[in-house]
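Quick one: co-fold with S-adenosylmethionine.
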Amino acid sequence: MAKTPGTLWVVATPIGNLEDLSPRAQRILGEVALVICEDTRHSGRLLAAFGIRQRLASLHEHNEARVAPGLVERLAAGESMALVSDAGTPLLSDPGYRLVRAAAEAGVTVSPVPGPSALLAALSVAGLATDRFAFEGFLPAKSGARRARLQALAEESRTLVFFEAGNRVGALLQDAVECLGAGREGVLARELTKLHEQVYRGRLAQLVELAGSDPDVSRGEMVVLVAGRADAQAGDGDRALLQQLLPALLEELPPSRAVKLAARLSGVPRREVYELALSLGASGVQ
Ligand code: SAM
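Sure, here it is.
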């Protein structure tokens, strides 16, 4: 008779505060046959803090392709295992994708033990739109490639979320100002759940200045969030477009219809469009 496969538990671990390891995560980490982690010393210390003694196996970006098949074989044969990363939720800019995929393909149950995540922790306190967001992970370290990526995101209307190391945050913000505009709203969520947790909110230009003037801002771990394009311009509208549209519409339509349509298409408030129409000599506008 074929053996019942084990379960691969994907377990989130603290991003800075040990109290964030859930009771369920603690139980499962203690029960499984093996804990798969990035760095056995790092995760060994975490488990020791909870009095958990476990067998550990290391899985990282350089050995994942090689070790995943053997782990999947053992899972398929009935052993249950937990996958953790150094901090937060595995697979999110962390190893595990190949293992999870191969385990699922082999018919192993892959089950989450949700918990800390730098991405969601940052989004939850940023105060930017969260109904739609684009997680971009780490941008390229080289400025040219980083700018190219930011340029490609310039029209994105969802909130943008980036991971970054503190010492590179100034360069990222500088490039973001150039590619996305100085007036965009941004948030730096730094050292979340740790002693020196700080959340800075402001326009990108202000954040660049802050990062340049206060060395503390670029220390530690950081999530950078930038408002999407539409949000950045909400209530502000596209005045350049209005300048082009309105004279043409006034030539073709009755003034009140031209104003209404120009306001809708440009996003500029109707009162402002109305005043511009008057300055262009339109009469009978309501
Ligand atoms: N998988 C992890 C997670 O779910 O949180 C993220 C791993 S990624 C390799 C590490 C990046 O996450 C850091 O460079 C930083 O951008 C972000 N990060 C991790 N811990 C953080 C914290 N306490 N505060 C702010 N950002 C953090």
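If it helps, Residues 15-16, 85, 87-89, 92-94, 117-119, 163-165, 189-194, 221-223 surround S-adenosylmethionine (CB under 6 Å).
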